[in-house]
Amino acid sequence: MELSRRTFHALAGTAALGFALTGSGSPTSAHPARTAPTGPPPPVPSADGRPHEIGFDSYSLLVDGRRLVLWSGEMHPFRLPSPSLWRDVLEKMRAHGYNAVSVYVAWNHHSPAPGRYDFTGVRDLDLFLRTAAEAGLYVILRPGPYINAEVDAGGFPGWLTATEGRARTSDPTYLKYVDEWLTAVNAIVAKRLFTRGTGTVLLYQIENEYDAHVDEPSGRAYMSYLYEKVRADGIDVPLFHNDKGRNGHWTPGSFSTGGEKGRWLYGFDGYPEPDRAPSDWGLFGTGGAKGGATASPRTPGFVPEFGGGRFDPWGGAAFDGKGYAEARRTRDAAYERRFHLTNLANGITLHNVYMTFGGTSWGWLPAPAVYTSYDYGAAFDEARNATPKLAPMHQTGQLLRFVPDLAKLHRAKSVRATDERIKVYHLTNPDTGAHFYVLRNDSGEAVSVTLPDAGINVPVMVPARDAKLIAADLRLGKRTLVHATVQPMLSLTAGRQDIAVFAGRRGDLAQVVLECPDEPTPMRLDAEPAWSWNLNKLNITAPLGAGGLSRVRVEGDGVDTPMLVLFADDATSLRLWPYETPSGPLLVYGPALLRSATLRGSTVHLTGDTVGATGLEVWGPPGITHVTWNGRAVATRISASGSLLALRPLPGVTRPALPALDGWRRQTGNPESEPDFDDSDWTTADKETTFSTTPVPDGQPVLFADDYGFHYGDVWYRGEWSDENGIESVSLAYSTGTQGLLMAWLDGEPLGTHRMPVPDKERARQGTWTAKAAFALPEELRERFREARDGKRDRHVLSVLVRPMQHDMDGEALDTHKAARGLTAVTFEGGSPEVTWRVQGASTLDPVRGPMNNGGLHGEREGWHLPEYDDGDWKDTELPRAERRQGVTWYRTDFRLDVLPGVDASIGLVLDDDPGRAYRVQIFLNGWNMGQYINDVGPQHTFVLPNGILRTRGANTLALAVLSDGTTPSGPGEARLTLLGAAAGGVPVKPAGSVTPGGSRSRTAAPERR
């Protein structure tokens, strides 16, 4: 509830009388003696060419002897197949308070075959690491070899499914392939280590949530091998593993590290449900092996993955069909604040938020558990837009950067709130004497309390299912904060004044008390704040959000440096941007994003983004008199707060108009179902043995697609026989991932379609689904067979199309990624023909888009998805369609975009139709497989088209491969472009390459500036 001006001034006038703040008592400590004092954190990281030392103690990381609280966000370069946009996301993360990025490196993304490794184009790991360093972010590198990550086979390459050797153990065959992979990855990583000054790689993870063989020699030997291999490859930064939960697995000393000590960190993952109270996994916990950070008391608390959202399965069971919008609603800013502040109170100083930008599981990248979008309900959505849940990340990240006291905390004496619904965590810094209180409200109602045990007798409001961090006895510049009822966000010195920012929820009455032994001269620079001085304390109050940013300047209290106190609600805090320059820090207020600030002479050159028209205010080092924004001069004046204030608003973005999708062409695309189709160049399926975990049925050949080198996308089978004409039905056993599908034709006549069920919540994680599809021959076909018994016909062809929907993730290390995909057995009733089987999947590797872009549809093998393909002889058509047939139909259209230079427009494709229509669509944009839509399953209807693949200034080709079962009209229905976000600014975008049908690279357009 917002306060009226009358109510606010009444409270402000009396609030000071209630302040009788005292110290919080001496702390109690369970930590060993300090190894490094509290002080300024290390500078923003870069590839500065100087060697650096990385260590740690029980409190935090130590970088060159300085304490670092790691505030990291997860993103996956392979889920954003436009390298230009990696910079966009990384710059946004850095601006919003993150100081590190955590990245998986997916083996399957880089390796199309044994011994072949590709780190070019969208797979350019070195480019990503360089870009992260340029953005000022540390890197937590996680190359597996197993990564999970809701990607196909948990990141294992498709070819590994058909190899000998038990994965995720010390099996020598498996380790031979692991050695190849790590050698390729580490050759790149070793050049970008922060220890060498050639990059910012700070930490390195081996394996991922490995809990299957913890107490077995093969598991311990496997982890030891990985450790020693990584060290042998020159990786000298601290190593770690992420325990799957709080099990005390893989703590220091639990396996051999070749005699090396003090270079291994224990970490554990956590994905708490929003309807549960946060757990204490550290200082306030029960302790012991299952107590989280206390399992490793000599290393700092480390959460390599903490829930920044959640994935959603096919059918949307996790969020009742509402998709990632519901994930973001249930895991909103309050959720993130409540759980992260609990972790911080428990002494956890290495945080990584999974995910911070989820992105897109394009092509055949997604594991069976997820559909195309991997938005995750993250702080940045799939279209790269900042969301409101960024507020606690932004505020806490800036706090951890600018207030070093939080890097070294002891549990202090217990403090109780006046309402027992509020749980209070009390911590103190032993070096500075600062006190921090985390007030957590797990109830469904907002609660107002005081903390008389701490001498805080003014009300502090904690919203329902939320938390608040308040500080006391904290040094801010040259003054001391006695107490604040809202969270400090940052403290810096810009120019000739100290600046302190406090942030909270809209409608909060912020009260900040500063020590002032001499009477100050406060200046209220906005209408909302009020102040009073009493008992050598200056009390400043302001309602948050009533007028945007509220300012009070304090001077004349015996301190020679003025202080500017700024008050912001969540939305306003997301427009405050600190930035560190060689000449000192500056603070910018107004735009939607600040990307960079460069000082040259008396001018500060700013780059960033705006959405709507906005003001601009800059507090900077002394001598700054001029400002430019994205290369253009900005007229300013000096404000009463000492800032350079723009005389006119910065312009917002001109939202681009999007064309209608029309001019469609159509072509049927399943000639493999016809009996006379030439399959002579297909692979004969005649193997008798397999390394799959799926047994081969007696009397059957191996039909598993992986055994014949077809690992991604659709697979066709054709079985041929003669002289067996009494068949009445055929039974097709097959094995797929979630939402797998099978279609069959006999002698060109459709037998029908079988599909796996839509998973419910209990089966959403199931990685392998098996079924037996029984098809009785239709009467017309039986009549043909009867005629054939009279000698009129004796050759028969059974055509089967299987959509495997990818491999199990093998999360339990049981080799389940080797479970069969495709047909597993074929039996007949009424006859026992001797069948010769041929199989065909994806034909040739796309050297630009990689191994997971294409499957085995006829149109994919012929290049129908590529923009260079000539579809001039296809039939003209219109959408929506209502065709009823079993099989594949392709639709193509071209469209042009003319987004203005300097505009970052995020555009999506929307597909929609009557949900009763059973069909699915593969979406190809300029040859890139951007995902799969299942009309009657969902929940995804909007597909992000990343700039760089999408040509925002030029021609584009959209191809839709529609797979329909013939039971309903198949569509497609409505297909339209939609604007998902737009900003004036952005980063330069280089179009992704393309290939001609012959496999050579085609020319690409010059880089475009949005």
Automatic annotation (TrEMBL):
SUPFAM superfamilies, per the entry: (Trans)glycosidases (SSF51445), Beta-galactosidase LacA, domain 3 (SSF117100), Galactose-binding domain-like (SSF49785), Glycosyl hydrolase domain (SSF51011)
InterPro entries: Betagal_dom2, Betagal_dom2_sf, BetaGal_dom3, BetaGal_dom3_sf, BetaGal_jelly_roll_dom, Galactose-bd-like_sf, GH, Gly_Hdrlase_35_cat
GO MF entry, a single one: beta-galactosidase activity
Keywords noted in UniProt: Glycoprotein, Glycosidase, Hydrolase, Signal
Recorded family membership: Belongs to the glycosyl hydrolase 35 family.
Keyword Signal: yes
The EC number(s) this enzyme carries: 3.2.1.23
Organism: Streptomyces tuirus
Name of the protein: beta-galactosidase
UniProt record, GO biological process: carbohydrate metabolic process
Any single Pfam family the record assigns to this protein: BetaGal_dom2
Catalysis: reaction(s): Hydrolysis of terminal non-reducing beta-D-galactose residues in beta-D-galactosides
Residue segments, region Disordered: 23-50, 661-698, 986-1010
Transmembrane segments: none
Domain Beta-galactosidase span(s) in chain numbering: 403-576
